[in-house]
Amino acid sequence: MDYLFDPANWEWLFSGNNFRFLLRGFWINIQIALVAMALSLAFGLLLALLRLSTHRVVSVATGIWVDVWRNLPLIFIILYLALAIPEPWRNAYEAAVPSWFPSAFQSPFFLAAVAALTLYNSAVIAEIMRAGIVSLERGQGEAAASLGLRYWQSMRLVVLPQGLRRMVPATVSQLITLMKDTTLVSILGIQEVMRHARIVTATSGNPFIGGGVDAPLLQVFLTVGLMFVAVNLTLSRLSRRLELRERRVTGVEVEQVAGVEDQLALAQPE
Amino acid sequence: MSELWEVLVRHFPEFRSGFLVTVQLVLVSFAIALGVGVFVGALRIAPVRWLRLVGGLYVEFFRNMPLLVLLFIAYAGLRRAGVEIGPWVAGTMSLGLYTAAYVAETVRSGVFAVGKGQIEAGLSLGFPYRQVLSQLVLPQAVRTVIPPLGSLVIAMIKNSAIIGAALALADDLLKQARVINSETFQYNEVFFWAAVGYLLLTVSVTFGVRTLERRLVVRR
Would the CB atoms of A233 and B64 count as touching at under 8 Å? Predict the structure, then answer.
């Protein structure tokens, strides 16, 4: 405890641009999370619709796809794709990425990292969205059909707007998990906050390249962790508020999705 | 196709030991998560305000923190600080304390799900508080808590892969797969069998929980 709160162990925070460097790394994580989230939402919706398809072959095949990817460890998928994406593709990506993109995005392994985050999270989100759509009363679809709407019309105009809105809180809480999971891409050498933290601990004590103030590993990583806590706490407050409103408006319990770490629907009103 | 089987047959001992290490990691971490989680969950519903606050701080801290950061703090961080902590302890403690935050929320919601009215009814019938808790709240809370706890075990199986991969704290399934791959370079075959191992675990937990749920369900 003394070690943890000893002011001498926190001096590094104000030395040189250590803190700015950490924040810059953290901003990369936010960017990666946003890119992966946008892709996951798009593919997740597509997978959810395919899963609910009336063609049995399509829905079963999509079901297997979704269940496989969401039941594998994310870090496993990251490491596998880093090996499996062929070198020409990596080089093509490296050549194609605009130079004004953040340096982390220039890494040849960035493709594998984002593809893995998307593969995993789109499967989870597909399951979340499917639960939202299924949770709608069957009457809704039947009423739409009896009004003469075609399948896609009733999906687009009746089922999706209600079903997806119901799952907004669960989706936001998956975004929190995704935000935390972006740290895993550091294993591919992508320069984000974990790498920046290690650079700070390695260089801060050196008077030539750092400020000459030792940066203890424990305190540096605790600072990084607290950055995540700050952002994720804001997100979880947001998703909670959305959920309570949703429950008040529709009067239904938000569905639970098996296998999702953060079971937001558990949160009960105080 | 034959290569696929060949890799499994030739490296079966490594795969098996990795699989067993993953199972052990999950079991030990889950025991920690359950113990700490129930305690923190109890703090969250305690009648004393500052106890609730302590419980809330624990939950928000561990739930919003990346597991990888916790692992760095628990292993490298504490070692630099002069605390002699083994890789196995650091790994299971991190995963356990991390998941405990989710367990605490699950426990809290399970108790809330029972409803104040029932507790008041029990008390007004003259049952002592302890009996109300043990015979009214607990049996019902356990039932609501089982499906989300199952989800947490699945999340733990997946998260346990970080322990071996990121800091090499344990020779678990993913770590063994990477070792085999560095010898054979047959990553498709090697990762296929590792995936089978992980899916075997996660899918069997899914079915186990579903069966348990069906057996415990109360028909009203």
Answer: yes
